[in-house]
Records
---
Amino acid sequence: MNVTILGIESSCDDTSAAVIENGYLLSNRIANQQVHKEYGGVVPELASRAHQQNIVPVVDAALKEAGRSLADISAIAYTRGPGLMGALLVGSSFSKGLSMALNVPLIDINHLHAHILSVFIVRNKNEKRFPGFPFLCLLVSGGHTQLVVMKNHLTMEIIGQTIDDAAGEAFDKCAKVMGLPYPGGPLIDELARQGDPHAYTFAKAVVKGLDFSFSGLKTSFLYFLRDRLHENKAFINDHKHDLCASLQETIIDSLMQKLIMAAKETGINDIAIAGGVSANSGLREAVNRLGARKDWRVYIPAMQYATDNAAMIAITGYYKYLNGQFSSQQMTPIARFDHL
Ligand code: KG4
Ligand code: ZN
């Protein structure tokens, strides 16, 4: 019998639905919310309203693209958290209602766990190239920066994390300082391609062990620009490529330094990256380069599965389904998780 999982993601500003059957992706639809652009960040109330408008058409489109009907669904996997409470409520309430109507089980998914399992998303068996267990994952998103040891698909241990800002936040906050629109990460990536990564140096935090810190970088970047703007009002515009390249290099360097340490301490050579920042071309190159030097086997999610999507929710749901891990109608969303 087929195991067909409908995945639903609504933790931030993307409404997404995906269908995974027997471990293979059949469809992955994402409705991005444009309403936040003019506000310089995600406005929670607007996100909830947009999810409410998008969720039915997105689920419908995902089923159609998959060539499946509601009657084919074995279980519904939805993001329980972490994320914006109002946004999570839309996806979880919709999923609960649909699971009752179809009389199929519900599976609650931790969004961060799902980011890590994005390296298991494939459309067919020729694409299969999966990490072995245990593997080490550098999880870098808008709200989280963690080093995680995956012992199997469902068991993990956080061995390092940021003590303040996440890497994605560092990209976005520094972009804002430069007057770039939200989210700044992808724009910095684009501008950095034509810049010199060694044009400027910014302060890198010294944090012991496998933890990270990025809040000092934003301050250092802000003061640097303030001084330069005194001398030249057009400094940012005149040097935006070099600024972005140098900033990106600083963030990547901090991440790589801890990744190397973690690989050494754990003795693990199967290395993955995941989360929105893993879409960064500089980071992808850096991990690949390092992997070749250190003899690591490197796993990087395809671009479309690096940022928020429901395919990662569905694949995590698939592994939880195989393990009989279902959730009840009583379960409520959680905005913040202290654990994975
Ligand atoms: O995983 P994600 O889509 O959402 C969260 O779970 O937070 O990550 C979003 C973060 C944002 O901070 C965004 O600026 C960053 O990922 N991001 C990037 C790139 N694409 C997305 N950062 C750097 N370079 C990129 N190409
Ligand atoms: Zn995410």
Note: Residues 131-300 form a domain with the Nucleotidyltransferase; domain 5 fold (CATH 3.30.420.40).
---
Amino acid sequence: MVDRAPLPVLLDVDTGIDDALALLYAHLSPEIDLVGVTTCFGNGDLSVTTRNTLSVLELVGSDAPVYAGAATPLSDWTGAPAEAFHGQNGLGGAVIPDPTRGPEKEAAAQYLVRMVNARPGELTLVAVARLTNVAVALSLDPALLGKLRGLYVMGGAAFVPGNVTAAAEANIWGDPEAAYKVFHAGGDITMVGLDVTHQALFTDDDLAGVEPHWPYAGLLRDALEFYLAAYNPKRPQGTRTAPLHDPLAVMLAETPDLARGERYAVSVERAGVLTRGATVVDARPYSPEVKNVQVALELDIPRFRRRFLTRLGWRTA
Ligand code: BDR
Ligand code: CA
């Protein structure tokens, strides 16, 4: 039962296995109105992530408009591909039909600026890819973030190791210049980083509960089998877990009290040889820096699991 109007959400993705789950979750949640989707390079080339986004939306019957954005990061530095975790086609080899529509004509950054200015204070932006599109939008409208209801960023690692390097999480590492711009552009920013997404785990038991009649059952089965194998190279089948990074960011936008967090001054390392792309969180008790970011830290795991699984169709206890 929804007792308030659905939250209008803009979702920026690089689809990607967990991005696909975030799209499914956003579409299937009555608490969310998926207003529009923008795409970025990341888990594959822009053409791959845009195709996957359109295909996943069509599979689930969503006609949310899709706007293609950045094909490269702001700097000329390029990161390694994400194939190990998302496969060559970005969906772990899962085969789903090609979309019957293409992306809209307008570019992602222009779309973000137009929509946010048309509905000031109303829209929540959930960014679960490199922050390139948001940074480009900020170059068009530097006050953009202040006109959002909130910005939820899946990215960074506050007090835990990185995933793509010892210090950096993939979305920040993939375009540190963009992340720096976004984190210092004002607005109400929540960082949904590895501290909290590594508590949001999908398991082998969950995989076994996929029901064949779901229209997206094949996608879930194949993509999540690949994802579990990628995250657990040494763990036997039956005991594997893998983090649901991107769906958690969407869920926290809609239900912020699912995780406890703290406000910190957060910046992004752009120069370090070993630490490029690290989120640097100033946890000094008497830090003079402005606390610009709310950092999600501790997840209510049972509530998260119940909500995620039931929205997608699982029968939960
Ligand atoms: C993030 O990186 C991407 O590979 C995932 O889709 C997620 O957004 C996790 O570090
Ligand atoms: Ca992603």
Note: Residues 7-312 form a domain with the Inosine-uridine Nucleoside N-ribohydrolase; Chain A fold (CATH 3.90.245.10).
